[in-house]
Amino acid sequence: MNSSHAAADEPIGVAVIGAGYWGPNLVRNFQNSAEFRLRWLCDLEVRRAQRVLGDYSTVQATDDLAAVLADDKVRAVAVATPAGSHLEVAMAALRAGKHVLVEKPLAASVEQGRALVAEAERRGLSLMCDHTYCYTPAVLRIRELLHGGELGELQYLDSVRINLGLVQRDIDVMWDLAPHDLSILDFILPPGVAPVSVAAHGADRIGAGRACVAYLTLHLNTGAIAHIHVNWLSPVKIRTAIIGGSKRTLVWDDLNPGQRLSIFDRGVDVASADELGDEQRRDMLVSYRSGDMVAPALTEREALRTMVEEFARSIRGGTPALTDGRAGLRVLALLEAATRSLAEGGSLIALDEESPE
Amino acid sequence: MNSSHAAADEPIGVAVIGAGYWGPNLVRNFQNSAEFRLRWLCDLEVRRAQRVLGDYSTVQATDDLAAVLADDKVRAVAVATPAGSHLEVAMAALRAGKHVLVEKPLAASVEQGRALVAEAERRGLSLMCDHTYCYTPAVLRIRELLHGGELGELQYLDSVRINLGLVQRDIDVMWDLAPHDLSILDFILPPGVAPVSVAAHGADRIGAGRACVAYLTLHLNTGAIAHIHVNWLSPVKIRTAIIGGSKRTLVWDDLNPGQRLSIFDRGVDVASADELGDEQRRDMLVSYRSGDMVAPALTEREALRTMVEEFARSIRGGTPALTDGRAGLRVLALLEAATRSLAEGGSLIALDEESPE
Amino acid sequence: MNSSHAAADEPIGVAVIGAGYWGPNLVRNFQNSAEFRLRWLCDLEVRRAQRVLGDYSTVQATDDLAAVLADDKVRAVAVATPAGSHLEVAMAALRAGKHVLVEKPLAASVEQGRALVAEAERRGLSLMCDHTYCYTPAVLRIRELLHGGELGELQYLDSVRINLGLVQRDIDVMWDLAPHDLSILDFILPPGVAPVSVAAHGADRIGAGRACVAYLTLHLNTGAIAHIHVNWLSPVKIRTAIIGGSKRTLVWDDLNPGQRLSIFDRGVDVASADELGDEQRRDMLVSYRSGDMVAPALTEREALRTMVEEFARSIRGGTPALTDGRAGLRVLALLEAATRSLAEGGSLIALDEESPE
Amino acid sequence: MNSSHAAADEPIGVAVIGAGYWGPNLVRNFQNSAEFRLRWLCDLEVRRAQRVLGDYSTVQATDDLAAVLADDKVRAVAVATPAGSHLEVAMAALRAGKHVLVEKPLAASVEQGRALVAEAERRGLSLMCDHTYCYTPAVLRIRELLHGGELGELQYLDSVRINLGLVQRDIDVMWDLAPHDLSILDFILPPGVAPVSVAAHGADRIGAGRACVAYLTLHLNTGAIAHIHVNWLSPVKIRTAIIGGSKRTLVWDDLNPGQRLSIFDRGVDVASADELGDEQRRDMLVSYRSGDMVAPALTEREALRTMVEEFARSIRGGTPALTDGRAGLRVLALLEAATRSLAEGGSLIALDEESPE
């Protein structure tokens, strides 16, 4: 019997691995959730773990991963180490029978990611990817609007995520920032809509040894286009997405707390191509809508809190999380294709016909 | 003796051809300039020309281009007809010995543009391209800052020009809007810096028969990257450019009259690659500057007014305008390459080694 | 028979008096309106009138007001001279049987304003005040929303109109800018709602001899409050009003063309005081609404164009304009009371029980 | 020997009283400071204190204030209870020999505040007021700029602090929000500059039994004016101050993290009144500066962290904190005068000649 069959009303014992940039956020949110009982914070440098916990905490700091995994009271493990070690740490946790939450990206390659997904499925364990943005009230609402048809069919998505960011030692700006946009795209696309090819351009003008500015273009199977601009060098911080639908267009400005989402009943309509002959097509009827804009009220709720609850739901229910390992794999496949395109000067890379899973 | 040798202090007789979208702006600015005397507004539909002039004007409306070109008092002609007729109208004007100002783009193709440039040079006449944005106080200042070295070397340029725009009958969004961005790029790049290849992606998701959303990526001979996003379908209007330099980064927000330019002394520095061994390169020293931001005071001056004065200066001095025919040709070469890339699914198109001129 | 009984379909002959700051806008709008035929532009300095008309106009420039008023073809006169001469010029025009449009404020004092209103009424002529902002699409919509009850009852109005402005030689910032806000307030208040007292504070810290910063507080007969901040010294330009209603609250940002009006279904409700005993009152039920925000689509239309049409409608129909002389008088009464308060250190000045008219 | 003479390098034992809205912020910041050792969180409802501490804390929760004050290891007490109980709690702490930090406002009245200041001075204990905003990097910089003369002499200060806020049960919007603005004003004014009179207007249009919208006007001894707008009913959140100086004008937008401060070298100059005769005065020379705007780089640092360090500095050094009890008293005096003005319909209330202390 694996540890996932404990009493439903008992908090789930959890350990966080990695006390770097992201770990403290997980520590805080597991502590604030009645669903979990945080038992360990583990880091290669135990002093770093201690510093994160502070002087007033009853949580144990350690640098001994094996001891954490050997703790029967730990049923779940959250991995917030650098991507290069995700395979090793997450695999060890799965093999120890723990449910696993992994910080994005799922792993350093599709191949590694596949191994994790296979292991989790074999063992009937939850493998969840911490695609945090998917759990913001804004993205949850965008998903509803696209799935529910209120925006109509997706025409284009344009995402900008730029800031003066830390130039990473091991990964380029695309692997650092684009997982956010790609996981959001994966999360909000209605069933049956998916990217079929990717092209990427980038530049390393400061001589960092890796792209610090990158542009990704994704062509979808519907003819729609998605475009992502990520940039570590921008002195201004912008986090905006425009999601053009056939009925309405949505603008998401994540840095405007008073008006994160704006839904415009404004746009261009063209008489359906099917109804028109060639001659007409040239003289097509373009009409413009210029209706109101609605900014829906959103509850303010920390995304990580919702994410942590989804992890609990997945563990207790034995069902995949909304952003499960397979979602993580799809994002990895896009990143790998984009990396190939970047190396080839922007050539269009088709995504495998077969599912990446 | 051609008509350009008239007395220096006498207003230059001018005619505007085309009373559509742009013509009225030229009419107004020629009227307000002491350098010019507007004599004719010519349009295929004379009533349209009359409507533009209104009930109180002494300027003559006509639909007879030949009569305009036969008027000895007309020394200069401004062409504001659709791009498809630029060659015909501008060539006729040049052959009649008139100096010519052409609305962007210079012509419908590089080949046509070359013919106009050759004709003007043969006849010693001014051929100027109305790259209006180049004459805004903001772009003139950006040019100064880049040429003068205050921003350092260009690292990247990211330009966004999106709005709910008129879906044009004959051209796609790239030919409609990108000439603005490409002409600005051409105008501000310091001597010796130039694009070497172009890739373009676009989508026509509304079935308009031409791209309504497009992304252009330009690689420069310095390794820098320029990227342009043009879009007819956006319910929000954005006209922003970020120009990253090795010393400072400039943000231009053309819709913020109180703060059009912001110059950030903020950025990332990397120890020069030349000074570093491979080992060091991995451990490179990245440092961050986080200095002040300065928003320089700009005079508010209509760009067309400055443009019209530059046309007068060029005519009177017999010297090329800042945005002369050759500048127009360079923009056309970029547009043609981008169009080819778009048709080929985004492949990288090298710009001819030889100058497009 | 006065000149207002001419054929309904014939353009109304009009003259503009004053070629200073505002006159040119009137000239342009009368020229663009099919309802009017502009015949004269009159200024004490005829060269100034000529400069405004430019080199291409068929309109006559003059410095001879008597000649203008003697012209039978002139049925209407628009007065755009300094406020100090409004009485003299407008009275002369009325006595010559002309309909009169006066730039705000109607006159330099309530007494002068009353004389004009009386004269116009005696002669059955239109006397209209050019309260331009009332004719913006935004203010027209606000009026509809308040009159129609969609905002509920007015709770507060807060208006900010600040900018680096010209320090006027003859009037303080209150007389320069507050007429805009006061005329808007007068225009949008539902029938029966009106100010009952005014207090004003100001400062002349730069030694200009008159207030350059001023704050007006108006108490309404409903218990609602209105507050106006006008300022000539602000380096940032702000033109915002918040209009709190019992049902919804509206924010008007006149400098945000993409979202001038925002209507928030967000606010605080308190159980009606009438239903509560004293004890309950202390434990009153406060509830918060946090619904959506709607930014209604507005047509973009120049206010002066609508204003000019309203002038024509009033002349042709023989009915008062929306912003007639009496509206101008009410604004003058508020300004005079505010001036008294300012002189008395901010004391609350009751407005005359009797209508100022 | 009172407890303030302990070893300088030992953390200062501290207790927080009050686990409501503000207490948790103090708990977090005392825990993060190496200067302090948090020993107790005390609340009338011990479960509330426990909830704030969470399941992982070693800090003791209690509802027994006497026990806390009897703890020798507690040398300092932070009071975050409702204003009505500040006198009682803070006085007990002072009498037990503890240094005291009090949440704003210092007490419920000037009289109560005076008693606390006197007690602390008699005992040589630190009494500090938690005027949090004074410790933001923005306000610290503003103080530097005003004290250092870079803005010139203060001409006007306009502060807006509006939001959809909790309608408080015991205090009006003025007592809830204006202490922020008044404490900032007190903090940044250069030596010798001080308010001399106050007027206040307000409205309780929703029937809450207390003002929900209020406007305060302060006249300073230099002729400058300060104005504060506080509002619980606004659906939009605004926290902006404009600080006009004779040399430069500063705009503080606290909700714009990328550009909190903007310093404009833009303004109006008038030739000094002293140099001019009466005649000249009418024809005075007004000149306009339109220089650059500079947005200084600010470190991002939580204000409470700096505040907590200032408390430690004051305790260890035996010197008054920047926002000591006397600063709290001055704010109380302004609030009391404003309350009187509000009750009297906005009449101008002179502040006592003698210092309120």
From TrEMBL, chains A, B, C, D:
A Pfam family hit: GFO_IDH_MocA
InterPro entries according to UniProt: Gfo/Idh/MocA-like_OxRdtase_C, Gfo/Idh/MocA-like_OxRdtase_N, Gfo/Idh/MocA_Oxidoreductases, NAD(P)-bd_dom_sf
Domain Gfo/Idh/MocA-like oxidoreductase C-terminal intervals: 174-346
Boundaries of every Gfo/Idh/MocA-like oxidoreductase N-terminal domain copy: 12-131
UniProt GO molecular function: nucleotide binding
Stated family: Belongs to the Gfo/Idh/MocA family.
Protein name: Predicted dehydrogenase
